[in-house]
Specification:
Elements (H helix, E strand, L loop, with lengths): L21 H18 L18 H14 L3 H19 L4 H25 L6 H10 L8 H26 L11 H9 L17
């Protein structure tokens, strides 16, 4: 019999607080702080781009050096590790029924895609929530792969991903202005164009220049 106030771990119950690990939550909090610092440069340009401030005094230069050296791009790898850690933990909770674990991961991934799309349309075009959801939908069964298969797929994805990212940066640049229109509705429509379903062909409701 479980102790009073101690919920059983299962498909319909969250992990009890007494069994939660503090380290992942602290790591997420620290990475969210880094993300906030990385986006602080938007205040310099009125919230329209990520362009690094040019010139300025010694303090401005020092702050920009610290952001570039210690903040920019530093949170993405750990968030990726924490995402994979979450998939493994959900799978372990359903070790007796792996299919149920995969269904849970895909259901949560679908909701992440939904929330990510809403985030893009309503607030910010640089959303990553939907991307995590898409990965969950596609990679729900990866945690049960053999170590050798994981290594081959990881190395291949690293090589192809690095090549694709480099090509995109060379073609599009890294400091593109954010989607901001004359009104809230115009801005929402502009942000909608970054959704995968609106890339090719363009959305018929996309604002014209």
């Amino acid at each position: 019999m479980p102790k009073a106030g101690h919920l059983p771990v299962g498909p319909s119950a969250p992990t009890p607080h007494s069994e939660r690990l503090l380290a992942p939550d602290l790591a997420r909090g620290m990475m969210l702080l880094l993300i906030a610092l990385a986006h602080s440069r938007m205040l310099h340009a009125g919230g329209l781009s990520f362009t690094a401030p040019a010139g300025g005094g010694a303090v401005d230069v020092a702050v920009q050096w610290l952001l570039t050296s210690l903040v920019d791009g530093r949170s993405a790898p750990l968030f990726g590790l924490l995402f994979g850690y979450g998939l493994v933990q959900m799978t372990r909770r359903h070790s007796g029924d792996p299919a149920q674990g995969r269904r849970l991961i895909r259901r949560r991934g679908l909701w992440l895609v939904v929330f990510g799309a809403a985030h893009v349309v309503l607030l910010y075009s640089g959303d990553v929530i939907g991307a995590y959801g898409a990965f969950a939908l596609v990679l729900a069964g990866v945690v049960s792969w053999s170590g050798r298969r994981l290594w081959w797929v990881s190395v291949t994805a690293l090589v192809l991903g690095t090549a694709a990212t480099t090509a995109l940066q060379l073609v599009a640049g890294s400091d593109a202005p954010l989607a901001v229109g004359a009104t809230l509705l115009d801005s929402a429509l502009l942000r909608t164009t970054v959704l995968p379903c609106c890339r090719s062909p363009p959305c018929p409701w996309s604002p014209r220049p």
